[in-house]
Design goal:
With about 150 residues, the protein is mainly alpha-helical. About 65% of the residues lie in helices and about 0% in strands. The protein is globular.
Length: about 150
């Protein structure tokens, strides 16, 4: 439960997804210390761990995708930040872009949320939100805004 709730940040009684995304910042800062050739392995490992811990937490709590599980936000935000250089500007912009896609749940995000059971269902919608956010953030980054 410690990992699934993002070091208990998901237990905050309001906006747990937002606090879970804030809890993701140390995981994003890892990009500053690992070679870019390891990004894929790092992200894949984090996604697999998120699916496992989410699945276990759902079983413990007896609920489907309870709000206190925020490791999915952590993995999704890491995906968001994977295509740009991490700095204060990209971190803040990525945070707001990711929260938008995670909350609004446009087409593909909603599809993943509705069509996968267990931990995969908890995590994969946030991964898709992260992919969409990463694309938008990369476009903004390439346009010279950051």
């Amino acid at each position: 439960m410690f990992f699934a709730t993002g070091c208990y940040s998901g237990k905050i009684p309001f906006a747990p997804g937002t606090f879970g995304t804030i809890a993701a910042i140390p995981f994003v800062l890892v990009f500053l210390i690992i070679p870019s050739s390891f990004y894929g392995v790092y992200i894949a490992g984090l996604i697999l761990a998120a699916i496992y811990f989410s699945d276990q937490a759902e079983k413990i709590l007896g609920e489907k995708d309870p709000g206190c599980i925020v490791i999915d936000e952590i993995a999704g935000f890491v995906v968001t930040m994977s295509l740009v250089s991490v700095n204060i500007y990209t971190l803040v912009a990525g945070f707001f872009i990711f929260r938008f896609f995670d909350i609004v749940k446009l087409g593909p995000v909603k599809y993943f949320e509705n069509n996968f059971p267990g931990g995969a269902g908890v995590v994969l919608d946030d991964i898709m939100a992260g992919v969409l956010s990463a694309i938008v953030l990369k476009i903004l980054y390439l346009s010279g805004i950051f």
